[in-house]
Structure formats: C-alpha cells, structure tokens
Amino acid sequence: MSEATPVLQIRDLHKAYANLEVIKGVDITAHRGDVVSLIGSSGSGKSTILRCANLLEHSQQGDILFKGEPVTWKGSGHAREPADPKQILRIRTNLSMVFQQFNLWSHMTILQNVMEAPVTVLGRDKAEAEASAHAYLNKVGIADKHDAYPAQLSGGQQQRAAIARALAMEPEALLFDEPTSALDPELEQEVVRVIKALAEEGRTMMIVTHDMKMARDVSDHVVFLHQGLIEEQGTPDELFGNPKSERLKQFLSSTA
Ligand code: ADP
Ligand code: MG
C-alpha cells in the first residue's frame, strides 16, 4: 500500500431500510492518522454510515475500500451482501467499533473482555493477550479494574474498557458511535481525554458525536450530514468558525 492509499474510503454510499432510503450517496475518505467526525441531527444517517463501513449493515450501492481493497459483493439491491467471509473478518477487526452503550460482556471481567477477541478471533497466545490487555487498560487509566465486572464500573470506566477492548485488536482505525452520549457530563470528560490522547498519537478514527467541542478539538475533517447527504464538510475551523449552509448554522445554534 502506498502512503497515499486511504485506510478507509466510502464512495457513493446508498443505504435503504426497506423502502426508506436513509443514505443517498455519501463519499468519505480517511487517510492514515486522520480524525474524521460526523455530525448532524438525530436520524441524519451517522450511525448507518459507520455500520455500513465495517459491514455490520449492507449497503445497496457504492464502494467501501479498506486500504485500497474494495469490498467484493454478491447479489444486488437489497440482496447485495459482502461475498468474502475472510474479507468481512479482516475489515471488522481492522475497523474496530466503540458503541454508545459500551456493549461489554457482563459475565466477563474487564480483563477477559479485553482479551477475548484477540485470543478467539485473532488466535493470539493467551499470556501475550493478557499482557497487552493490561497495557491497554493502563493506557485508558483503569489498570486497577481488571478483575472487576462491567456492572461494578462507572459508565465512564466501562466506556474506557470498551476502548481498551477495541485497541486490543490493533485495528487500522477506530470507529466511535456517540461514545459519550450515554454518560453523565462529569464522566464524559474522562472518555474525551482518552479520545484526545488517541488522536494525538496519530490514530485513524471516525467519530460520530454530538459533542461539538470534542469534534472541534480532535478532528482534521468534519462532515455535517443532513437527511442522508453531506450538506457541508471541511476543517473544524471552517465548519464551526465559518459555517456556510443555513442548515448547519441552525444545527450549530441548536447544539450550542
Ligand atoms: P443517526 O445515527 O444520525 O441518528 P441513523 O443512522 O441511526 O441516524 O438513522 C438514519 C435513519 O435510518 C433514521 O431515519 C432511522 O430511523 C433509520 N434507521 C436506522 N436503523 C434502522 C433500522 N434498523 N431499520 C429501519 N430504519 C432504521
Ligand atoms: Mg446514531
């Protein structure tokens, strides 16, 4: 792969649920080290784009390229689906998702949560996976919680555990879907700090967020979606400092 090949390219993405077209032709590119934020009202299609990118949802039209390699499809329209199970696995493990509701496994300790996929999906040696799990828990500031169960942690700690779990897959990029929306304001900041640190170390990330301050602070590129289309995009300074479209202006004043 040449350095110029993007980690993730979404081209002309179209997605409908039954007859409801929710993504109507969207292009987004993330190069290595880019932080791309997706903003927009509820229902504008942000989560759907992330889920289509890592193949949790199947789009009906358009290309998704991971490190220059296009997803191979079979079928067409609503019957279209990725054709190659190995490619699906490669893309899923390399575009690691962090969800709003953490989605930790409640019957496993925090350490087991972080070790599970590297061992079972990637076939890592258990002792090595355990050592890296401790390192990732340390990185997100919850090294002392390894023996706790998710229910014993605060929301902010659970989300940081979920970030450690995503990092343990050593993905090419991290996809965040409203990572701070389920958290009380005082716990949001501990997660924002972790995301900022990841941005500073040059991680490639796509972040759906309602937190405009975080989007402004961490992003290289911001995409404003409206009803399944990109209404405006640019640098954080352009979008937040000098919004052009009336819809974006309205959206920003509603979130201020
Ligand atoms: P956002 O993340 O920006 O709030 P979503 O991507 O979740 O928006 O949703 C975009 C649109 O798709 C909305 O109209 C939503 O109701 C619809 N939608 C999302 N998921 C489904 C689904 N599983 N079945 C049917 N409609 C859905
Ligand atoms: Mg959403």
UniProtKB/TrEMBL annotation:
UniProt GO MF annotations: ATP binding
Keywords from the named record: ATP-binding, Cell membrane, Membrane, Nucleotide-binding, Transport
Compartment list: Cell membrane
Occurrences of domain ABC transporter (ranges): 8-252
Membrane topology note: Peripheral membrane protein
Tree of life domain: Bacteria
Family: Belongs to the ABC transporter superfamily.
Record-given protein name: Amino acid ABC transporter ATP-binding protein, PAAT family
Origin species: Shimia sagamensis
